[in-house]
Backbone:
């Protein structure tokens, strides 16, 4: 080939040469498209026109990535929706996607004030419109003044708009009872996921027994396992205690760590509080114990606190890792490396689509921080509407401002409805024989344990499916309800769960829970 | 070595020893350390510092910092397209659909976008690949652009700016170790996203040089040289082309694109076509040819087989909406199993920002003749593009009047990349400081004039040659001042070091 190529530009000999040698693989390629077995090489072993990029020659770490929240069950749900819309007969009239914490899709209304400011920032002509309240206008003016050319269309600093980071810092100080926060330690992100992946990326190094290991809870939010798989880091599982409402046991952390130290280099501990998918709220004592554990074992702490406003159960309260860290005194607060993540997607606002978020880095090495700043500069900046929204979340209308009362009204309505639905979900699920559900103390999900009859487990295994995947798939086909099987989050061997959001409106949620009940009874009967 | 700075304080040292940081420069991801991104590098950090110093009243030889380092149109005063922003406002706050001052076509676009969103809200997650109706509009846009070559919406992936798509595609390609490690061919000069992504992914960067003498065109013989050399130590699998060029501003001819496609086909390379400047073509006789269109004109022998990915964005062209991070990629002839893996991979980041998706929709589906916003849209678009064409010419002309600077025509995109002569003495002083000579030059220009450019070394260049990248985006009057300041500086600099 190397001999032929220099005359390629003339296109005299090569044309005929190509059409001859290439006609063979062409037919095999169209066969591939029809899903027939692949022939990767032509005769004479010439590699000529087999795909450059195939499943066998792609990045092997990407292949290991799994993300159950949008996995096969959701793909099937989308198919079912299409079939319904095409008039196909199903045993249900609509698909209910209770698989993902997508509040607005479930009918939750956006906060009026936030959307007014975003509209003003998008189309500043509206600043002359007298129907918009003054506080919305002044927020919009402040955001626009921080943007190059007063436009959300400009790139911002890669770390995020200065004034937004200042507002975030002041919010954290208020939240944590005055513990100081430096805006330079705030990085705005494209949703919390972006920040989490970036931090994990910084941590990964070594090979074999020195390869970075990261401790994550089981059950976990599968972003963590997906990111670790892609980065080729070692996932270290520690199990939450289902019997004690999904709390963290230090002895279990110790067990997981000690075992992992034999084959990798554990360097970070991830905690999701309030929990996803498990909905628990960790106690102050537990957080203190975890911080002490991380300090003793030299682990960097990653605190996923995106549900910090989603606490419902009486007696429960959100304690930020940062606040507890600083209450433990300088021995800890001067040394323990902590990164905390927040987002615009959850809490009372539920603005997932804007992909807003921030992370705060505490006690990070200055040189590493410079590397982080450099790394995020490559993706230029987080989306500006998401940055603006993050600003509004940390700096909402204040008492005395025209939008304050309505803001409080809307926020309270959403949070009380969520609290009510958390309780309803737990109660109804616990009336079902073969299902037991911990209190939904916070976040947006219930993660009940389900009993699956032996015969069903057998049938699932024959199909090569996880038993709870089999269960959820059957529920989807029969009821139109889309849940995520516990196996997508990880669970103690031999136990089965599903994750269900509590987001549907109360009336719809009641119907949904009753359908789950009916399905479970039928399923149990069928397989017993 | 981490603890040396505390050695004077014995007590503190002891504590720090037991509590040395988990994450230090020596124990962090080594591939991240290798990442460099000159467009936002040290010179820009210094520019931001200078701005702060100015605002604090410090005396400088200039009254403002002009950031000509980055293609950031709105920051340079370019106005957004009214129609786009009206629709975005309507989507953000649907109450405005009752406002009679908004034109009907803006409202109908907004309604269509909202109807495609869960709960009719931009606050919902969308499909990870992007909103269906937006991908359909993108497919129709591509078909119109390419004279009817069919486009399947299933082959469209919406992205968080073009960068996101490029990094994702490179990520899929990387495998092997040592001599089998994936190599990716990129132009030199290049847009440093490519080198940064390849460094982070641990892939092998294969440099092919653009021909400055022939207005930064691509030579197949140079591609061949680079490929042959690379084959000795890695597994070259992809060829990246930026057209119109960044930082070099050239527009590749149809013939050149055809040659490149044939080269990729013969050498079994996946083609990545960065076409984010597709509407930014200024020079007479130049025209944008999409890789896809040329590929399909070459017949099924090529169009059924060559794997091509094309990238577009909302950040450039006449709209310049960088902050919204909108974009798409079209994948052509991709293996079905790989495509399924791609879909899975993008699902982890849930979805691209919805306002950016909405904006992408408006870019590919702007007001049509007869619609109320059409005339104003055309007026605004034309004004921006003609101003850019004028500034492209102005930049080339003025730069070429400076002795020691020579500038190729700015045929497209948003940048000039002139070659500069740096005197031996200056080169020596730079080397003594451990700086690249053109970094030394640009840093000096920044300190003396407030103009922020990016040195050619940040993009790569033939050894012994020096360049800088300057955007053509400032308003004409400001650009004229800027060019004259560059001229003055260059003359002074040359004199000082000769």
Residues:
């Amino acid at each position: 080939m190397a001999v032929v190529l220099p005359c390629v530009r003339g296109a005299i000999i090569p044309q005929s040469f190509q059409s001859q040698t290439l006609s063979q693989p062409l037919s095999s390629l169209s066969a591939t498209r029809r899903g027939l077995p692949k022939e990767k090489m032509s005769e004479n072993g010439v590699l000529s026109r087999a795909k450059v990029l195939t499943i066998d020659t792609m990045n092997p770490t990407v292949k290991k990535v799994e993300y159950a929240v949008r996995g096969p069950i959701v793909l099937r749900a989308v198919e079912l929706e299409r079939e319904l819309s095409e008039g196909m007969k199903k045993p249900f009239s609509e698909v209910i996607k209770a698989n993902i914490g997508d509040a607005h899709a479930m009918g939750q209304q956006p906060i009026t004030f936030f959307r007014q400011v975003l509209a003003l920032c998008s189309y500043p002509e509206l600043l002359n419109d007298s129907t918009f309240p003054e506080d919305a206008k002044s927020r919009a003016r402040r955001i626009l003044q921080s943007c190059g050319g007063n436009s959300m269309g400009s790139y911002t600093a890669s770390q995020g708009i200065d004034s937004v980071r200042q507002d975030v810092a002041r919010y954290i100080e208020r939240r944590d009872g005055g513990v100081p926060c430096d805006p330079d330690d705030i990085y705005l992100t494209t949703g919390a996921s972006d920040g989490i992946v970036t931090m994990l990326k910084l941590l990964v190094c070594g090979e074999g027994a020195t390869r970075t290991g990261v401790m994550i809870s089981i059950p976990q939010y599968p972003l963590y396992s997906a990111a670790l798989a892609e980065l080729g880091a070692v996932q270290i599982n520690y199990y939450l205690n289902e019997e004690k409402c999904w709390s963290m046991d230090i002895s279990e952390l110790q067990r997981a760590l000690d075992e992992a130290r034999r084959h990798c280099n554990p360097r970070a501990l991830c905690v999701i509080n309030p929990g996803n998918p498990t909905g628990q709220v960790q106690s102050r004592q537990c957080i203190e114990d975890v911080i002490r554990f991380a300090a003793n074992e030299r682990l960097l702490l990653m605190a996923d606190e995106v549900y910090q406003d989603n606490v419902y159960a009486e007696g429960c309260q959100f304690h930020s890792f940062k606040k507890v860290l600083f209450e433990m005194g300088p021995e800890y607060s001067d040394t323990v490396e902590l990164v905390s993540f927040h987002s615009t997607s959850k809490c009372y606002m539920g603005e997932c689509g804007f992909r807003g978020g921030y992370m705060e880095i505490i006690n990070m090495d200055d040189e590493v921080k410079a590397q982080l700043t450099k790394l995020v500069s490559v993706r230029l900046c987080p989306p500006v509407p998401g940055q603006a929204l993050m600003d509004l979340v940390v700096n909402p209308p204040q008492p005395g401002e025209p939008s304050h009362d309505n803001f409080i009204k809307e926020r309270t309505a959403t949070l009380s409805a969520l609290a009510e639905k958390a309780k309803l979900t737990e109660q109804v699920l616990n009336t079902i024989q073969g299902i037991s559900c911990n209190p939904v103390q916070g976040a947006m999900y219930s993660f009940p344990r389900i009993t699956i009859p032996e015969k069903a487990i057998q049938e699932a295994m024959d199909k090569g499916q996880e038993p709870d995947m089999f269960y959820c798939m059957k529920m989807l086909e029969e009821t139109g309800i889309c849940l995520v099987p516990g196996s997508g989050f990880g669970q103690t061997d031999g136990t089965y769960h599903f994750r269900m959001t509590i987001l549907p409106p109360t009336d719809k949620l009641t119907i949904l829970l009753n359908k789950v009940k009916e399905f479970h009874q039928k399923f149990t009967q069928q397989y017993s």
In short: Residues 1-17 of chain B have pLDDT under 50 and may be disordered.
